[in-house]
Write a structure and sequence with these properties.
Helix content is 54%, strand content 17%. By secondary structure, it is an alpha+beta fold. Strands 4-3-2-1-5 form a 5-stranded antiparallel sheet. Strands 6-8-7 form a 3-stranded antiparallel sheet, covered by helices on one side. Helix 3 packs antiparallel against helix 4 and helix 7 packs across helix 8. The radius of gyration is 36 Å and the shape is elongated.
């Protein structure tokens, strides 16, 4: 708007801007250079406003992911991740071009500056290898689509929901509240817990006299009931079922079960499963395993040995007198 106003005024006054650049006196050259520099800044600002407005409008126009389908949700996550980085990169490029063109209009030879910047960049690269490593690692994480904003990831000893990232680091919000700011170079292998599905496994111990076939049917029935639940059903992709007998322990039989849920939905389903299993097992006479000790009095040798053990413990427990 400012540029258009200046052009309209010069046209209305019959003033030719090009005449200033043709004159040789100092005042005319300074005025012409000032107008050209102002034009460069105005054009740079106009381009920045166009890019910034387009990106901000796109981000604000994205609907809530809960109201979209799976494909649309993935596309929105990618846009929320990449658009802020594109905006920051565009700002740096436009600012650099504007400064270089301004120096050129002031009569500064920018060729040696560009060459010096290249040499300086190499020196900085050797001195800031960690920074360069972080930037390039971040680029490859984005190209590989390893994680997006809003996803829960585990990377080494860090875990949390991705809130944002810059050119060199990512911000994770731990489920207990703290925020981790981690350089991309320190992430290493990333475990993404928010993609496609989650296979959740539950295990518990039952007594040795348990009818395993009856327990299997009860577990399957519970899984089918939860899959039909209007609230929890959409979170379950594969119903709960008994997978196998995992182990014969000291106190009972360990049973393994599994189910398939949408990422993050397994926690709500777990809260419902455990009380249901306890209730159904108690109603059908199935007991959970618990530690117990059996003492036999058969045979005088066993009885004598047991008596000796009890006497020894009693002597240790008795207070000593000075």
């Amino acid at each position: 708007m400012i540029f258009s106003a200046v052009v309209a005024l010069t046209w209305a006054w019959g003033f030719e801007i090009g005449d200033l650049t043709d004159r040789r006196d100092l005042a005319s050259r300074l005025t012409g250079a000032g107008i050209e520099i102002l034009t460069i800044f105005l054009i740079g600002d106009l381009l920045w406003q166009i890019i910034k407005t387009a990106i901000d409008t796109t981000l604000q126009g994205l609907p809530d992911s809960e109201e979209s389908g799976e494909v649309e949700t993935v596309r929105q996550a990618k846009l929320r991740t990449l658009l802020p980085i594109i905006r920051a990169t565009a700002m740096v490029l436009l600012l650099t071009l504007t400064i270089m063109m301004t120096l050129s209009q002031l009569g500064v030879e920018i060729g040696p500056l560009i060459a010096s910047a290249g040499v300086f960049g190499i020196a900085v690269g050797f001195g800031a290898q960690t920074l360069v490593k972080d930037i390039f690692s971040g680029m490859f994480y984005l190209l590989d689509d390893a994680f997006r904003i809003g996803e829960y990831i585990i990377a080494g000893k860090y875990k949390g929901t991705v809130e944002s990232f810059s050119l060199r680091s990512v911000r994770l919000r731990h489920h207990r509240g703290p925020i981790y700011t981690i350089p991309f170079g320190d992430l290493g292998a990333v475990q993404n817990l928010s993609r496609d599905f989650v296979i959740d496994k539950l295990s518990f111990n039952v007594s040795y006299d348990t009818d395993l076939e009856k327990a299997r049917k009860l577990i399957k029935q519970i899984g089918l009931e939860l899959a039909e639940d209007p609230e929890l059903g959409p979170k379950i992709l594969g119903p709960l079922k008994m997978q196998r007998v995992e182990n014969f322990g000291d106190y009972g039989i360990e049973i393994k079960t599994k189910m398939t849920c949408v990422p993050g939905g397994q926690w709500e389903v777990r809260q419902k499963i455990y009380p249901l299993i306890k209730q159904r097992f108690e109603e059908n006479g199935i007991e959970f395993a618990r530690p117990s000790v059996s003492v036999s009095d058969k045979g005088s040798d066993n009885a004598a040995a047991a008596g000796a053990v009890v006497s020894a413990h009693a002597k240790k427990a008795a207070p000593t007198q000075a």
